[in-house]
């Protein structure tokens, strides 16, 4: 009996080996096929479609929630691609809720075809590149992606790993800048001049004035759920190098230092401590999961909150906060790698039609119909163009409720939603261009060699950062020192050394 | 002696009532807060006696309309089908394992127990189910992986059979010429009403409450179970404030109360339907066994 | 030869087991081949099988933190408390429930006790927050009324061992009591009737009749729980404390450590390694427990 069982298990293992082995081979086959295809391409061949067969691209996209009219949109999408590219499209909508799991699984599954993926890469694309999950795009870009290159320009640097481009970012806010949004009624009533506010410190007297008039209102909180206490970008100089564990305090210089030991960090945390002691900080900031700054403002809990700034942000925030706002923009915008890589179009290794995939991506940068379709849904149904040339609610607006222009590709081609400035997207592009560019823009840190340090460090930052950065620690200096001790014990030195090493190598190769 | 009985009885009832109330009261708070005005919660916190009531949360859910109803249908099918199949397989596996005379019993027990501890992890399972069995974006994705037969339930059932089915009964039935399958359906099952109803409850709950399979194996939202729909809503509420964007229909979202309403919508039907379902099912299965 | 004949006699019993065994083979055993990725530096371009081996590299991070000791301590101690307290509470509830004369009352209580189990941990975390938040029922409704200072619950680690133990028991005791109740209800009534005639007190009845009869079930369930001593409910330890850093020293367990570490990395090999580590420890613990039980009371061993 025992032997039987063993045989059974062995058989199981072997089946599995065979099966996954097959999968691997299949992917390899696909790879070969592609190689052959590109060969025929060079020989003047048309597309990689087999004779008489219309190729089908698999494209994944991301939504807040899957739109009700997804089928209508897919149909329209197919009309466009059939006409322009001669292919059909299987359109797979991920949601912000499942995108992380779905990406991890499909990229790990050897025989699952995905040709274009709009991916979320919160810690950069270097990890996926290191695991061999993404295709290098340089050749494809040269051949089929000229419009992408023309639109994105330098920003393609931002999705480069080891000298090769692996992703195509979208036209959106590609830089970071911090701002505080205030309830306009209160600002007007107390006659506060926000134009003098340029730094976090400048906010203290403003807060004091509001707190005096409205002792029940809180002032310091931010828009995110589980908010960042310390915003790197507020002074427009620092580059967080993805994870803030080893940063460039001065982004014009490629020198990795420990943010948490810097004077800037200490000063910031001390200021937060003062704010907290003065009752400015929303007391549930660390634990309240339901309410971001906008919701708290709407319910009348806070008079101001922190959020990122970009052209058009004020309108966006007013909509969510349900009232007129006034903004105090802090520091200068800065562009760094993770801002650019955060969301990018990629062509996974499992792609069957990489050339077509690149043509599709290029279409996202040239075809206004396609861009508008992905942004607002089906024209005439989910949205209409009004007399002034703005996009506005159609007969069935809610059928495509997730109306945003930052995901699809080249937002400059997009119609502007009514209520925004007509020049919104050119302003955005100008703002992007005006941003300071970190000297390390394009450097993507790959933590593969220091993963165990990284996990240990994450544990330490989870324990200390929020407490210190929102001013809940009793003794700021002592807590910061304690955190730094814990960070070094967890291997921060080795981690930063690895970062510096990769950064130097990257700079040398450039 | 009488006094002891008295004390015991008082204590017993007191403990039960305290426990039951402590389970019930938070649930009542859940229901009340789902009917509270959203800004009241943000401003003054949760309360059993809120200052202002509101139906906004349910209005929002109702606005999602057909989606939720459709998802209830999917959940119902998946739960009923999965539970019945899973229950049958679990009992059929557990009973022979409980027989001390079965050759190879320990090896098979080990085979079952081993799966309680070891698993291949998410990625290998995903690759197997999607590339070999092609269940991605089919209803079977919600029914088959992970939930049907769980080692824990098998061992639980085995332990019941072991301690509650006297071996002598089985022996004498065998002497009377009953087949093994006949013994199982006509003698063992009817004696197993309590464990059958318990397993029904447990397996049923694990199906009803599951959203993991949907998260992994579904991207087609028309197949979402109610838990997937609700889960996605909760997640989109949380991402809304981080991602931003001018989302017209979302701007009026009562985020505190909707989460509570979602929980009510997900759990209340189970609580209401359970007693009736349980009665009918258990009767059906046990009696069916007797007749068959 | 003789053995084979024996097995043939039981062919129908094997047949009964077959669907379940096949299901477990497919659902649980086949994917186990994928555990090799715990020992590999995976490159998906070359495929899982041709990726290079990397020994125990993927396990390193589990021990790299100086908190490894705290995390292990938390995981094991909480589980031990959960097992013991859960056992006492759920057995007591089951016994009390079984003695309810009115069937209606019994199912009413049972229904109430099951409510927490049906609510997901995400929602439980909202409820806990409703009580403990700075605007919560305890601060506003009790402490303020009594004229005391409000407590910042999510920043004070001294309260959390109790809160977590309470929440866990609250959520799971009802569920576990259903199992014991089923077993008690399945007992032969004649035993109790005899006792009734002999005039034993309720305590004696519990001590000398119910508990001994319940012993096999108690042992089985406890052993299954012991096997999961290295696992912990992510929802309980991450969502209920709202991921608050200040109380991490009493809320950090293996699962939350792994989650925090891999959230951004999303490394399949490393998460696979964590799972394997938990399983191997659980395996040895359960085997040791089984050997012990086999020595003391062979009938109750689970294997």
From TrEMBL, chain A:
Residues 36-51 have a biased composition (Basic and acidic residues). SUPFAM superfamilies: Periplasmic binding protein-like II. Residues 1-27 form the signal peptide. Keywords: Signal. Residues 25-51 are annotated as: Disordered. Residues 440-508 form the DUF3502 domain. Pfam families: DUF3502 (PF12010), SBP_bac_1 (PF01547). The keyword Transport does not apply. Coiled coil: none annotated. It comes from the Bacteria. This is ABC transporter substrate-binding protein. It comes from Diplocloster agilis.
UniProtKB/TrEMBL annotation, chain B:
It is found in: Cell membrane. InterPro entries: MetI-like (IPR000515), MetI-like_sf (IPR035906). The keyword Transport applies. GO terms for cellular component: plasma membrane. Residues 72-277 form the ABC transmembrane type-1 domain. It holds the Pfam family BPD_transp_1. It is a multi-pass membrane protein. GO terms for biological process: transmembrane transport. It comes from the Bacteria. PANTHER family: ABC TRANSPORTER PERMEASE PROTEIN MG189-RELATED-RELATED, POLYGALACTURONAN_RHAMNOGALACTURONAN TRANSPORT SYSTEM PERMEASE PROTEIN YTCP. This is Carbohydrate ABC transporter permease.
Automatic annotation (TrEMBL), chain C:
It is a multi-pass membrane protein. One of its GO terms (cellular component) is plasma membrane. Pfam families: BPD_transp_1 (PF00528). Gene3D superfamilies: MetI-like. The keyword Transport applies. It is found in: Cell membrane. GO terms for biological process: transmembrane transport. Residues 72-289 form the ABC transmembrane type-1 domain. The keyword Oxidoreductase does not apply. Keywords: Cell membrane, Membrane, Transmembrane, Transmembrane helix, Transport. The chain crosses the membrane at residues 12-30, 76-97, 118-139, 159-187, 208-231, 275-293. Belongs to the binding-protein-dependent transport system permease family. This is ABC transporter permease subunit. It comes from Diplocloster agilis.
């Amino acid at each position: 009996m025992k032997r039987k069982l063993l045989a059974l298990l062995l058989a199981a293992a072997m089946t599995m080996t065979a099966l996954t082995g097959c999968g691997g081979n299949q992917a390899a086959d696909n790879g070969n096929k592609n190689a052959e295809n590109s060969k025929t391409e060079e020989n003047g061949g048309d597309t990689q479609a087999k004779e008489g067969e219309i190729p089908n691209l698999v494209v994944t996209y991301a939504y807040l929630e899957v739109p009700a009219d997804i089928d209508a949109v897919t149909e329209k999408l197919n009309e466009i691609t059939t006409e322009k590219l001669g292919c059909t499209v299987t359109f797979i909508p991920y949601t912000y809720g499942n995108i992380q799991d779905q990406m991890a699984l499909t990229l790990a599954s050897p025989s699952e075809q995905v040709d274009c993926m709009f991916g979320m890469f919160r810690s950069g694309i270097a990890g996926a590149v290191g695991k061999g999950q993404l295709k290098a795009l340089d050749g494809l870009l040269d051949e089929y992606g000229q419009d992408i290159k023309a639109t994105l320009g330098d920003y393609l640097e931002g999705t480069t790993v080891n000298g090769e481009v692996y992703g195509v970012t979208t036209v959106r806010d590609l830089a970071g800048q911090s701002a505080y949004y205030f309830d306009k009624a209160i600002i007007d009533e107390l006659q506060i001049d926000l134009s003098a506010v340029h730094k976090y410190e400048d906010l203290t007297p403003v807060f004091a004035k509001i707190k005096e008039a409205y002792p029940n209102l809180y002032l310091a909180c931010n828009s995110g759920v589980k908010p960042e206490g310390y915003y790197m970008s507020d002074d427009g100089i620092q580059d967080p190098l993805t994870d803030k564990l080893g940063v460039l305090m001065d982004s014009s210089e490629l020198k990795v230092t420990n943010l948490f030991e810097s004077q800037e960090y200490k000063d910031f945390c001390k200021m937060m401590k003062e704010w907290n002691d003065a009752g400015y900080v929303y007391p549930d900031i660390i634990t309240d999961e339901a309410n971001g700054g906008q919701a708290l403002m709407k319910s009348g809990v806070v008079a101001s909150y922190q959020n990122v700034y970009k052209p058009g942000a004020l309108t966006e925030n007013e909509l969510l906060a349900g009232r007129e706002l006034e903004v105090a923009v802090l520091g200068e915008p800065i562009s760094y790698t993770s801002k650019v890589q955060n969301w990018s179009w990629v062509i996974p290794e499992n792609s069957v039609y990489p050339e077509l995939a690149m043509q599709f991506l290029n279409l996202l940068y040239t075809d206004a119909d396609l861009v508008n379709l992905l942004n607002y849904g089906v024209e005439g149904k989910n949205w209409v163009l009004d007399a002034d040339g703005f996009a506005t609610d159609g007969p069935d607006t809610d059928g495509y409720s997730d109306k945003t222009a930052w995901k699809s590709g080249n937002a400059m081609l997009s119609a502007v939603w009514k209520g925004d400035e007509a020049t919104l997207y050119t302003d955005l592009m100008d703002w992007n261009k005006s941003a300071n560019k970190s000297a390390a823009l394009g450097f993507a840190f790959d933590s593969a060699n220091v993963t165990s340090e990284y996990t240990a460090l994450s544990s330490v930052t989870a324990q200390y950062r929020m407490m210190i950065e929102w001013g809940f620690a009793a003794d700021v200096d002592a807590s910061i020192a304690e955190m730094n001790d814990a960070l070094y014990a967890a291997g921060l030195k080795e981690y930063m050394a690895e970062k510096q090493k990769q950064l130097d190598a990257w700079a040398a190769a450039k | 002696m009488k006094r002891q009985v008295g004390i015991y009885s008082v204590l017993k009832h007191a403990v039960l009532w305290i426990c039951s109330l402590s389970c019930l009261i938070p649930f009542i708070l859940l229901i009340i807060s789902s009917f509270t005005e959203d800004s009241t919660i943000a401003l003054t916190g949760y309360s059993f006696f809120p200052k202002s009531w509101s139906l906004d949360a349910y209005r929002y859910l109702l606005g999602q309309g057909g989606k939720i109803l459709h998802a209830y249908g999917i959940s119902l099918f998946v739960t009923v089908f999965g539970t019945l199949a899973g229950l049958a397989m679990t009992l059929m596996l557990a009973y022979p394992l409980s027989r001390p005379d079965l050759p190879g019993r320990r090896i098979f027990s080990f085979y079952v127990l081993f799966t309680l501890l070891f698993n291949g992890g998410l990625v290998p399972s995903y690759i197997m189910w999607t590339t070999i069995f092609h269940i991605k974006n089919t209803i079977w994705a919600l029914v088959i992986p992970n939930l049907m037969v769980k080692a824990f339930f098998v061992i639980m059932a085995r332990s019941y059979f072991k301690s509650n089915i006297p071996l002598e009964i089985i022996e004498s039935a065998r002497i009377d010429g009953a087949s093994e399958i006949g013994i199982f359906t006509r003698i063992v099952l009817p004696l197993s009403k309590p464990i059958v109803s318990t397993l029904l409850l447990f397996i049923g709950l694990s199906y009803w409450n599951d959203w993991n399979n949907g998260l992994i194996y579904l991207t087609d939202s028309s197949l979402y179970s109610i838990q997937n729909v609700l889960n996605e809503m909760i997640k989109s509420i949380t991402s809304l404030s981080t991602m931003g964007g001018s989302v017209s229909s979302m701007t009026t979202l009562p985020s505190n109360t909707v989460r509570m309403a979602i929980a009510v919508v997900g759990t209340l039907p189970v609580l209401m339907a359970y007693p009736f379902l349980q009665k009918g099912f258990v009767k059906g299965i046990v009696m069916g066994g007797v007749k068959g | 030869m003789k053995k084979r004949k024996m097995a043939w006699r039981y062919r129908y019993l094997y047949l009964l087991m077959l669907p379940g065994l096949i299901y477990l083979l497919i659902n649980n055993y086949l994917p186990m081949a994928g555990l090799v990725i715990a020992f590999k530096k995976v490159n998906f371009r070359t495929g899982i099988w041709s990726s290079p081996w990397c020994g125990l590299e993927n396990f390193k991070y589990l021990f790299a933190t100086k908190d490894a000791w705290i995390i292990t301590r938390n995981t094991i101690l909480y589980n031990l408390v959960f097992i013991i307290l859960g056992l006492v509470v759920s057995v007591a509830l089951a016994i009390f429930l079984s003695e309810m004369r009115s069937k209606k009352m019994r199912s009413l209580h049972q229904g109430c006790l099951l409510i927490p189990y049906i609510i997901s941990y995400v929602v439980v975390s909202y409820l806990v927050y409703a009580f403990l938040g700075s605007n919560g029922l305890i601060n506003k409704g009790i402490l303020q009324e009594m004229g005391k200072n409000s407590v910042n619950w999510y920043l004070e680690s001294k309260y959390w061992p109790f809160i977590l133990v309470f929440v866990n028991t609250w959520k799971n005791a009802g569920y576990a009591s259903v199992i014991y109740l089923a077993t008690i209800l399945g007992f032969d009534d004649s035993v109790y009737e005899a006792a009734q005639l002999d005039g034993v007190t309720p305590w004696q009845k519990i001590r000398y009749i119910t508990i001994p009869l319940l012993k096999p079930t108690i042992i089985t369930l406890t052993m299954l729980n012991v096997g999961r001593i290295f696992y912990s409910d992510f929802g309980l330890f991450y969502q209920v404390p709202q991921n608050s850093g200040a109380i991490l020293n009493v809320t950090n367990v293996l699962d939350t450590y792994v989650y925090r570490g891999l959230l951004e990395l999303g490394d399949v090999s490393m998460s696979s390694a964590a799972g394997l580590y938990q399983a191997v420890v659980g395996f040895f613990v359960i085997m040791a427990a089984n050997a012990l039980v086999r020595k003391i009371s062979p009938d109750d061993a689970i294997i």
